[in-house]
């Protein structure tokens, strides 16, 4: 958790704050998308995966995080009172950590959703390949560090590797 990082203001202000925070931390943003209906994300340079893991997942050996090949470090930004799709993935597992703000998560082994569990500041969530999950915006913006753990070295996961069971935005 980063108590000095305040996620307030409109969407543009929040994303500018996080982009400045990432730059000051020495991270290069390889791609970004601020136009998701639930918020958006920053994809960080793959060569900085070790530094990203050291900062956000200290004490977890990088080899433990790396199932197959690259790690695709990302920062997810979920806006208040929104939900990402109820989804799962065929070619990746994921690990999340609430860095700043507030957020919740729902997980299940089946297509049936359970209840939203509020994430504690600094809490780490591990999502297995195929496990159903949903990130949920609570009362304020949430900043989540995410690593994709690719399970197929010959066909790494990408944004198309999302099976949506339910989606508030009709995707």
From TrEMBL:
Q: Which InterPro entries does this entry report, sorted A to Z?
A: Man6P_isomerase-2_C, RmlC-like_jellyroll, RmlC_Cupin_sf
One Pfam match, by short name?
MannoseP_isomer
Which keywords annotate this record?
Isomerase
Q: Name one GO molecular function term.
A: isomerase activity
Query: How far does the signal peptide extend, from start to end residue?
Result: none
Instruction: Tell me the domain of life.
Output: Bacteria
The Mannose-6-phosphate isomerase type II C-terminal domain extends over 48-167
Biological process terms from the Gene Ontology for this record are:
polysaccharide metabolic process
Q: Please name the SUPFAM superfamilies in this protein's record.
A: RmlC-like cupins
Q: What is this protein called?
A: Phosphoheptose isomerase
Q: Organism classification, top ranks? A: Bacteria, Pseudomonadati, Bacteroidota, Cytophagia, Cytophagales
């Amino acid at each position: 958790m980063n108590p000095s990082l305040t996620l307030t203001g409109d969407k543009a202000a929040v994303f500018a704050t996080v982009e400045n925070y990432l730059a000051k931390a020495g991270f290069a943003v390889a791609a970004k998308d601020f136009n998701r209906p639930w918020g958006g994300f920053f994809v960080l340079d793959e060569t900085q995966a070790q530094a990203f893991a050291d900062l956000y997942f200290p004490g977890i050996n990088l080899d433990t995080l790396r199932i197959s090949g690259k790690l695709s470090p990302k920062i997810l930004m979920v806006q208040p009172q929104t939900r990402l799709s109820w989804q799962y993935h065929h070619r990746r597992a994921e690990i999340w950590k609430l860095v700043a703000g507030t957020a919740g998560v729902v997980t299940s082994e089946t297509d049936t959703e359970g209840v939203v569990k509020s994430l504690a500041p600094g809490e780490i969530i591990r999502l297995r390949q195929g496990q159903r999950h949903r990130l949920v915006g609570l009362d304020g913006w949430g900043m989540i560090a995410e690593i994709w753990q690719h399970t197929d070295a010959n066909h790494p996961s990408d944004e198309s590797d999302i099976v949506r069971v339910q989606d508030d935005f009709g995707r």
